[in-house]
Specification:
Structural class: mainly alpha
Largest sheet: 3 strands, antiparallel
Order of helices and strands: HHEHEHHEHHEEEHEHEHEEHHHEHHHHH
Radius of gyration: 29 Å
Helix content: 40-55%
Strand order of the largest sheet: 3-4-7
Strand content: 5-15%
């Protein structure tokens, strides 16, 4: 980076696009007619996949499949200090468990790889070099201590913290002098000019004048890793992403991203910001809620289709809300123009009923029912093991009969191995002392029953 900066030292020019400037039509995010639909789910492996992430992935998946496009998994692992061991593997495992596997991913590979941002650092360096050459970016030598003081001063004055763009005005000589002491500065993007208006496919026309309310953002950290703003723009461009479906918390940042697209001379994708998935009481889903992780639901015996059904039925994007939709039906019925700006309120107390509905659908299918028989046999063996005096209860015909008889009375297959249903698999084992508390004539009754 130091060599690059020394080579680029020259009098400052105002930021300019590296290609042709974007016209009004392009600013509205119209894409090329007939272009292939390519969408991405880009979580950070700083935690395991939870319901909020599943919903974002699902909407991308069903949009891609409805338009015969590609669904890409990209892992944003640039914050190396917050990575959780096993999280990257868990995210892809859970997408496959849910029945929405990516077409391209770190595990599957693909034509636009690598799919880990930590393996794409050369692309971010290349884009940064282009921005430095055009004057759209500049090195920042401010220490963490100075930035912290700026933040504290703003908060003390009840203002929104922002960088004061101090290093933007450094002369060529000052930059050279500071590079000699600090050869690896951060790189900031020069926010200047009017942000382009864009038509969000959910929220409509938007424009956020970020330059008037924010300081110039860091796009490349001193360790060579990009921030989200640069990485998502560079990756979406090089991966040919046609539509970005992401959470509404990124709506305000989109103007900043469009300025980056403009400075790099790239055509931006279409944007659709999805309203948040909230708890029933309106509070935000939190990773600290242990019961929102997909691993929890899978271990508890909930079906993938039940989860996909409940997280779509509580939101929008369909002509009507209904229970019991399968993934193919979600794909067929999904309409992005029907997604509203209102947050989706998730009531997990209804999940057992959703699961009951989808379990009965599986039972009604002979092939699926045979798979359920195998799963229940394993559950019985695990739950009762040595207590099985009669191994014939594991016969497929008997197990299938139990499933058919009890299908309307259970929400999960695991319910059939609960203590309430233990009589289906084991003989009652009651001590004589316990029987004596029931009746004084226990010996007489036993002789008549067993005699």
């Amino acid at each position: 980076m130091a060599v690059l900066l020394k080579r680029l030292l020259h009098p400052r020019r105002p930021p300019a696009a590296l290609g042709r400037p974007l016209g009004r039509r392009e600013a509205s995010l119209d894409t090329h007619a007939g272009a292939a639909v390519r969408v991405r789910f880009a979580p950070s492996p700083t935690g395991f996949l939870h319901l909020g992430g599943l919903r974002a992935a699902l909407y991308n998946y069903i949009f891609a499949k409805k338009h015969r496009g590609s669904f890409i998994l990209r892992l944003e692992d640039t914050d190396q200090t917050r990575l959780v061991p096993g999280a990257a593997e868990n995210i892809e495992d859970m997408l496959e468990w849910a029945g929405i596997p990516p077409d391209e991913s770190p595990r599957r590979g693909g034509p636009a790889g690598p799919y880990l941002q930590s393996q794409r650092l050369a692309l971010y360096a290349q884009a940064t070099e282009a921005l430095l050459k055009s004057g759209a970016a500049y090195p920042c030598f401010c220490s963490p201590q100075r930035l912290e003081l700026l933040k504290r001063e703003a908060l003390r004055n009840r203002q929104t913290p922002r960088y004061d763009n101090r290093c933007r005005s450094l002369s060529e000589a000052q930059v050279a002098q500071k590079l000699a002491k600090d050869p690896k500065p951060a790189i900031r993007f020069h926010l200047e000019g009017e942000a382009p208006a864009f038509q969000d496919l959910v929220y409509g026309w938007n424009r956020h004048e970020v330059a008037s309310v924010e300081g110039d953002p860091v796009i490349l950290k001193s360790d060579g890793f990009p921030t989200y703003h640069l990485a998502c723009v560079v990756d979406d461009h090089h991966m040919g992403i046609s539509h970005v479906l992401r959470g509404s918390e990124w709506l305000v940042s989109t103007s900043k991203h469009l300025l980056l697209y403009q400075a790099l001379g790239w055509q931006p994708p279409r944007f659709a910001h999805l309203p948040l998935l909230l708890n029933r009481d309106g509070s935000k889903l939190s990773k600290r809620q242990g019961d929102i992780y997909l691993e929890h639901f899978a271990a508890a015996g909930f079906l993938p289709d039940a989860l996909l059904d409940i997280i779509t039925s509580c939101g929008s994007g369909f002509a009507e809300n209904q229970m019991g939709r399968t993934l193919p039906e979600l794909i067929t019925q999904f309409d992005l123009t029907r997604v509203t700006c209102h947050s989706a309120l998730l009531d997990l107390e209804k999940l057992p009923e959703f699961n009951r509905l989808h379990l009965r659908r599986l039972v009604s299918d002979e092939t699926q029912r045979r798979q359920l028989v195998g799963k229940l046999q394993a559950l019985v063996e695990e739950a009762f093991g040595s207590q099985l005096q009669d191994r014939h209860v594991l016969d497929a015909a008997y197990v299938e009969r139990i499933i058919l008889l009890r299908q309307g009375h259970i929400c999960r297959l695991q319910d059939l191995v609960s203590p309430v249903h233990s009589y289906l698999w084991t003989r009652p084992a009651v001590g004589r002392a316990q029987l004596g508390t029931v009746s004084e004539k226990v010996d007489v009754i036993a002789k008549r029953v067993l005699g």
